[in-house]
Design goal:
Strand content of chain B: 15-25%
Low-confidence stretches of chain A: 169-186
CATH architecture of chain A: 3-Layer(aba) Sandwich
Radius of gyration of chain B: 22 Å
Distance between the termini of chain A: 57 Å
Oligomer: heterodimer
CATH superfamily of the largest domain in chain B: Cytochrome-c3 Hydrogenase, chain B
Shape of chain B: globular
Number of helices of chain A: 7
Mean pLDDT of chain A: 86
Distance between the termini of chain B: 34 Å
CATH class of the largest domain in chain B: Mainly Alpha
Strand order of the largest sheet of chain A: 2-1-3-4-7
Number of domains of chain A: 1
CATH architecture of the largest domain in chain B: Orthogonal Bundle
Chain lengths: 186, 515
């Protein structure tokens, strides 16, 4: 026990402040209102789906949970089932063999839901493209809200993209304005 | 040149980093050679096929088998008839051949006469007679279908099945595991892989050698240096230009850094899988430090595209050398401390010891290689058995354990981290001066092999160019082909909740074998 505590003390607190959202990564069509996205931002649950990546993006998604990036401190955590998720974090070009599984994971995720496509392959199909075995980018198979390029994107870019999906980069007033508008529409 | 007392004449291929021999054989000679290799306790490295109808109308297909012999890498090519491309089932001699044969049929339409005939990479998402690696197969798209795969059923009172995947519970690649269980005990595990098949080998066809390196580096992201290096060895053999010495040393530096990255990650997750999240936090911190220095010195955290045909795309400065040595010493101290904590943690050891055992006898029979093999007393490590520069000057110490359980695979990782940290320091201090990159010009009708000990095991790339000097065929072989079947055995008689731990202790590639 004591060696462990000593090691924890020696390492100290190393978590770094989160980067701000990168709104440029948002896909042009916004599927969720700002008010809803604001809600999700307080406790976001992510389900990761690898639709055919090279495993490079997964390595960087793993890094989000290390003490430096400490994603859970932002109220964001990974779940084991799409039924518990608000956001699908999808990597890879979509392999034909994964198409059915990806669609089912999307259908199993309760509304309102967000999809973030990760990596050059997820954004465009990347080096693998489209073929008998490959459907190309994620948006060819399910709707995508945010696309984070990079091969693979760094953990900071991943956080910027995930935050862009949920927390609008604008002030409280415009958020409540938006939410009033949404109320009226209802 | 002849091997294993077989009257088969091999030709030494020029410009290969590891001694590499090749020949063409008939069916009877191939079988005799396989048996002799098996008797001599050598191993099958890879099995693949190709369409040669444009070169030979009568024998329009070929089967290629590569073996690890004491003398080097040996590749035998068996020409097959155009009308009925069939060959004898090699899985009877080398069990690891079975899935490679199934994949071979899916991709090239070349069939083993016996053995398991179920498709492996094809999941009913393209027609059975659409063979993507045949030269005349058009570039078509097909609708996805839901496959009904005939898993082997276990009969009996109280036996039930647990289906897991393709999407797994964590941040992991997709694969399907079908457990037949009685209570909590696993009676049988059957793997169904191929979910990530992206048609990489067809994608290679027609690429030029430089572009191919980028694709090879993306076959399996956690082993990008190993794949890119193996590919570049093949390309350089075709071009007839060996990279300058400094480039070879820098490649080894990158490869050892990749090994440490993955081992640090795995040791953290092994702790996490037995509820010691302290281990994950500590090891993932070290891993992040390691990756950040990669980014700072080499411009990419995971070292994608740093190994290029002709050499490397990066160089090391004097400050970089100092930073690396300083970091190696710091990490060595931290890992030593963490190992002591793991060693003395009763709860962790209780879960690690005797879990997911692959005995040395079983490992030998299945042909388990790489890290998992070394944890079951299988002494295969190219850096020791066939050391190419710079490994021939570094006297790599092979890590060997005998117990074959999760604990043994963790111990091999600890030992390999320590050894790689030593190697990294030796490399940066012994780095020869000079250029880091030479020119590689493709040659028509060339053939080259690359063979590198990645962190998981040995990666083989077999590359061929066509008359236009572009890629005609590029086969990438991942060590996971040999080791996935061992995981099925390791799970037997363990409880289902221990499976994630056992699986993690192997940490085999999905992308690398699905291609």
């Amino acid at each position: 026990m004591f060696p462990m505590l000593r090691q924890i003390l020696r390492a100290g607190l190393i978590s770094e402040p989160a980067p701000i959202a990168d709104d440029a990564l948002r896909a042009t069509t916004e599927r969720l209102s700002m008010a809803l996205r604001k809600q999700l931002g307080r406790a976001l649950v992510i389900r990761h789906v690898d639709a055919g990546s090279c495993n490079g993006c997964e390595l960087e998604i793993h890094a989000l949970s290390n003490p430096y990036y400490n994603l859970e401190a932002l109220g964001i955590k990974f779940a084991a089932s799409p039924r518990h998720a608000d956001l699908l974090l999808v990597t890879g070009p979509v392999a034909a063999n994964m198409e059915v599984a990806l669609k089912r994971a999307y259908d199993a995720t309760p509304e309102p839901k967000l999809v973030v496509a990760v990596g050059d392959c997820g954004c465009t199909g990347g080096i693998f493209g489209e073929s008998y075995a490959c459907r190309g980018k994620i948006a060819n198979v399910i709707p995508v809200d945010v696309a984070i390029p990079g091969c693979p994107p760094t953990p900071l870019q991943l956080i910027q993209g995930i935050l862009a999906a949920i927390a609008p980069a604008c002030d409280e007033a415009s958020i409540s304005g938006e939410s009033d508008k949404a109320e009226k529409e209802r | 040149m002849q091997f294993l007392d077989q009257a088969i004449e091999f030709k030494l291929l020029a410009d290969h980093a590891t001694l590499t021999y090749a020949t063409r054989v008939g069916e009877r000679d191939l079988l005799a050679f396989c048996s002799a290799a098996h008797r001599a306790e050598r191993r099958l490295v890879a099995l693949w096929g190709s369409d040669e109808r444009d070169r030979d109308a009568k024998h329009g297909y070929a089967l290629h088998a590569a073996f690890d012999l004491a003398e080097g890498l040996c590749c035998l090519t068996l020409p097959l008839s155009t009308d009925a491309p069939e060959f004898p089932d090699l899985a009877l001699i080398f069990p690891a051949a079975e899935r490679m044969q199934r994949a071979l049929r899916d991709l090239c339409g070349i069939t083993a006469q016996d053995g398991d005939q179920r498709p492996w990479l094809r999941h009913a998402n393209w027609p059975a007679d659409h063979y993507p690696l045949r030269r005349d197969t058009p570039d078509l798209r097909f609708a996805s279908a839901n496959e009904d795969y005939p898993f082997v059923r276990v009969e009996g009172d109280g036996v039930h099945e647990v289906a897991v995947g393709p999407i797994h519970a964590g941040i992991i690649e997709p694969g399907h595991f079908r457990f037949s269980v009685m209570g909590e005990n696993v009676l049988r595990l059957e793997e169904r892989l191929g979910w990530k098949h992206k048609g990489i080998e067809r994608r290679f066809v027609g690429m030029n050698l430089a572009d191919g390196a980028r694709l090879a580096g993306r076959v399996c992201g956690d082993s990008t240096v190993a794949y890119a290096w193996a590919y570049c060895q093949g390309a350089e053999a075709i071009g007839g230009t060996l990279p300058p010495p400094r480039a070879r040393w820098l490649r080894a530096l990158l490869l050892e850094r990749e090994r440490v990255t993955n081992h640090l990650g795995d040791l953290g997750y092994l702790g996490n899988d037995v509820a010691l999240s302290f281990g994950l936090a500590q090891f993932s911190r070290l891993r992040e430090d390691w990756l950040r220095l990669n980014a700072q010195l080499f411009g990419h955290r995971l070292l994608f595209d740093r190994v290029v045909p002709g050499g490397v795309a990066v160089d090391l400065t004097a400050e970089g050398t100092l930073a690396i040595i300083e970091q190696c010493q710091a990490v060595a101290g931290e890992v030593r401390r963490l190992k002591k904590i793991y060693d003395e943690h009763a709860g962790l050891q209780d879960r690690f010891l005797s879990t997911g055992r692959v005995t040395p006898q079983l490992a030998k029979r299945l042909g388990v290689i790489g890290l998992a093999g070394r944890a079951s007393a299988q002494s295969w490590d190219l850096r020791c058995n066939h050391p190419a520069e710079p490994y021939d000057q570094l006297a790599v110490q092979m890590a060997i354990e005998r117990n074959g359980d999760v604990a043994a695979r963790a111990l091999v990782r600890f030992a390999e981290i320590a050894e790689s940290l030593r190697l990294v320091q030796s490399i940066v201090t012994g780095l020869p001066p000079g250029a880091v990159r030479g020119e590689v010009h493709s040659a028509p009708g060339g053939r080259g092999f690359g063979w590198i000990e990645g962190w998981r095991g040995d990666v083989l790339v077999a590359l061929e160019t066509g008359v236009d000097g572009k890629i005609r065929r590029c086969h990438c072989h991942d060590p996971s082909w040999q080791n996935w079947p061992a995981l099925e055995h390791a799970a037997i008689d363990n409880i289902v909740p221990d499976f994630p731990l056992i699986n993690k202790s192997f940490n085999l590639a999905y992308a690398g074998q699905d291609l």
